[in-house]
Design the sequence.
């Protein structure tokens, strides 16, 4: 049974990541998306499901139950539900045939990029804006894919995306890594709208250690693409001869689950020209960078992102983030904005 009673919003009609797919095993798992508590579970065929974490009988959390013979069992009275959400067994009345009102509320779920994605409401019409976010690096077999996270962050998803698009903080928040205090000027760059967000190109930054394999400081060329309201990807290419890996390039996708308007769960998906380093080593570099960002992100007030360009001061260096705010406003995004 689908969930037509979930309040429709622009955000509800989008796909959102909720958990690393390989962490969802044989037991139910609780999660939350857009203020909606979820129960995640796999049936006997291994298919993943995402439902409202509430039994239709007496409201108990289904995530406290168990998977029994490929069906989700409520912890309170043992009602069992098939993968379609239909109630198929009420232990107190073995001969009873449950009807539609006894079914669980179900949502769409699919696995991609090593994550389980959930959509709470179907859009009136499918479009590229409502499709699963795409990343060009995924199609490049020359690049290795590694996920990092999750990180639980006490701020809105739009604040995190805007920080991801921002280069002017490199010399201060990431001093000695992605920036230096004596090289903070942001040269002009270009921003253009796309069917799914925006694309910023010709972005350049002087970086002491732009990646795991840097051998010297380098001028690094960036491009940023917002592929959905809470999803973005950057591609960075350092100057030739400044890394230990010839032809080094990497893409980093930012994938955010908007848990509440002011709290988020974050993953990064790396696509790198490195098939030698361990996952731990690749993840450690990204961990260092993001944990430098996190306390600053959590200090920003308000935690929701102001969409009015008059609400906070701006400069030409903020061209990408200003375009991002306009995109959110035009897309009707209200969760995590003000």
Sequence:
């Amino acid at each position: 049974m689908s969930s037509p009673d979930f309040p429709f919003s622009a955000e509800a009609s989008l796909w959102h990541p909720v958990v690393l797919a390989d962490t969802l095993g044989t037991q139910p798992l609780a999660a939350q998306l857009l203020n909606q508590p979820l129960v995640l579970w796999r049936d006997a065929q291994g298919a993943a499901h995402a439902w409202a974490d509430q039994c239709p009988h007496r409201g108990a959390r289904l995530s406290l139950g168990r998977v029994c013979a490929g069906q989700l069992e409520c912890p309170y009275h043992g009602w069992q539900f098939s993968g379609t959400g239909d109630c198929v067994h009420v232990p107190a009345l073995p001969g009873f045939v449950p009807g539609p009102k006894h079914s669980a509320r179900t949502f769409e779920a699919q696995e991609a990029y090593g994550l389980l994605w959930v959509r709470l409401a179907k859009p009136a019409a499918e479009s590229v804006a409502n499709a699963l976010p795409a990343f060009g690096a995924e199609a490049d077999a020359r690049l290795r894919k590694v996920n990092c996270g999750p990180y639980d962050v006490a701020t809105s998803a739009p604040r995190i995306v805007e920080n991801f698009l921002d280069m002017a903080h490199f010399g201060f928040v990431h001093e000695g890594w992605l920036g230096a205090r004596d090289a903070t000027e942001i040269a002009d760059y270009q921003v253009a709208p796309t069917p799914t967000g925006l694309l910023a190109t010709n972005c350049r930054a002087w970086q002491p250690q732009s990646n795991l394999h840097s051998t010297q400081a380098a001028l690094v060329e960036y491009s940023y693409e917002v592929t959905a309201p809470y999803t973005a990807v950057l591609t960075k290419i350092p100057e030739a001869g400044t890394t230990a890996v010839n032809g080094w390039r990497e893409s980093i996708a930012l994938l955010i689950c908007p848990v509440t308007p002011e709290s988020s769960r974050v993953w990064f998906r790396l696509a790198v020209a490195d098939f030698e380093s361990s996952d731990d080593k690749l993840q450690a570099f990204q961990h260092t960078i993001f944990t430098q960002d996190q306390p600053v992100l959590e200090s920003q007030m308000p935690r929701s992102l102001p969409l009015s360009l008059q609400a906070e001061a701006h400069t030409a260096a903020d061209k990408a983030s200003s375009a991002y705010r306009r995109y959110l406003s035009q897309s009707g995004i209200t969760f995590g904005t003000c």
Notes: The chain is about 15% helix and 35% strand. The longest strand covers residues 197-207. Helices lie at 157-165, 170-173, 279-299, 319-331.
